[in-house]
Known about the structure:
By secondary structure, this protein is an alpha+beta fold. Helix content is 50%, strand content 16%.
Amino acid sequence: MSGLVLKLGPKERVLINGAVIENGDRRSRLSIVTPNANILRLRDAIHPEEVNTPVRRVCYIAQLVLSGDADPKDASIQLMRGVEQLSQVLTDADSRKILNAATSDIQNEQYYQALKALRSLLPREERLLSAAQYQ
């Protein structure tokens, strides 16, 4: 059986195709066998008040698609614009690789994978913003 396996801690919440599901009192594993299901761990979710940097904005758009709060076609355009803007600033080879992967995921309507790739840029962005603050 292939698919995504979610390992949930006690009382952990996850959003699956727009429905919030809360785990019980014990750790558990869920196998998601439906392809292209929209899944978001709520502990990983970016809240609206936290959308205060360029990478967070692009991640948030992908997150809105996964939560069912944004139309995928409209969001794809915004995501591609956001990735293009990020690629003008994050020019190192590793960032380019991540942004290329995110672009491919967006084009293939794999929004969870795009979000996962984009989230990996958050620590880098934080370091760059911190360094810029002290200059």
